[in-house]
Amino acid sequence: MIHLRRYLANISSKHHGLSTTRVTLVHDKSKGEHPTAGIIVVGDEILKAQVRDTNSFYASFLLYKHGVKVKKITIVRDDVQEIARAIRFFSGNFNYVFTTGGIGPTHDDVTYEALGLAFDDTLHYHPKLVDIVKNRFGCKAFPSPAYKMAYIPTKSVLKFCVNPATGEAFPYPCIELRNVFVFPGSPMFFESSFQALCKELFAGYKSFSTVEVFLNAREDSFANVLNEVVQKCPNVTFGSYPESNRYYKARITIESENEEDTETAKTMFCSQVPSGVLVDYDRTPHVDPLSKYEQLLENSESRSIYQKSFEIFLDYCREPEKVWIFLDGCAESAVMVHLARVAMEKLAGSSKIKLRAICLQANKFLQEISNRYNVELCCLKNNGTIVTRPEIRILFLGKRSNASEREIEDYERLKRLFNESLPSVQIQFPLIEWADKDVASFVESLSLPYHTADEVGSFRSG
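Above: the chain sequence. Below: its structure as tokens.
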């Protein structure tokens, strides 16, 4: 039966015009198989690079987490015929199809029309959607452009997903026809509703078994080993990616339908490459930081140094709203943020309590750190003065006793800046007794992301 289904799907793919036989793949969850999916992104603005497509990335990420194989992603322009052809082809070849974009009130919003054309269906004003447009969106006059969002294929159904944040249904539904689910293009609306649909649609599906291996070596040095393992593990999918990372040069992904096959392939690969190139890298050092910190202490030569600074953070973080950290992305500031989060985990047992940090100039790297560690990040105002926060009582700077002359000058300059703007704030140096080797050992053992002094450099040239 499976072979027949694939044969019919192949016939459909060769004739993805607008007539002849239609094939919709139906997935049997009871067999434990991973369903397949295709994503169709609609919009001239995407093809012209006027708008960046983030929806397909977000959808692929969620679908993979739910055990769904995304087999194809396509971007099509705002053309009824092209969208219809894509829908028919995807519908006949994948278990689930998700479209994003082209369902607004303007002339180029033609996804509903294309959906009807793909399945030889007429369109009608759905009474429920008319009511939503009229009463929820405040469009009293009928007809008007807004009611185009209520004009959908006759055989389609409305799928009102529940917003997990509020427990209430979203005001506008996902439109479902056969195995096709139609979503808006705005990421703000797409992400929340798509997440809710995935949670409902794929509950109970088994996720993929995936591990990563990190190596401090170039791809060509282990390519032969990887090729050999690939041949010996036909049920396992491998990926090799050269990356520019402080801690490793290449990343290998190993994935299969079950944990046993994945672990067997990993062991086989790791046993055949030199042990010296394998890197014990943690992609998420901010997750469960307390246990990782305690494990670090067990074998660290700098144990007493780390514990002494940690006691400082424990003492001050009992009132976290009063304690702020200077964050510039250097190794010392990364250490302070991490120790503060560990202290909060120790005191409150939760990562939900916000930390506070001040930066001179926000950038993508600092924003990533603040997102990871749940940090409220405040920047200097444009006029060069510190943002006024009356609750600030203590500010931590990462100055160390054996810092270079250049670093000492920078910290003294920074201290003067804060003293002038916030004279009542105490400046503290919780890492003052740390040496270079202590900092290096801490960040490397925990895989903390950071920038070097030359990469940071923001206030040195000011």
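The chain is about 40% helix and 15% strand.
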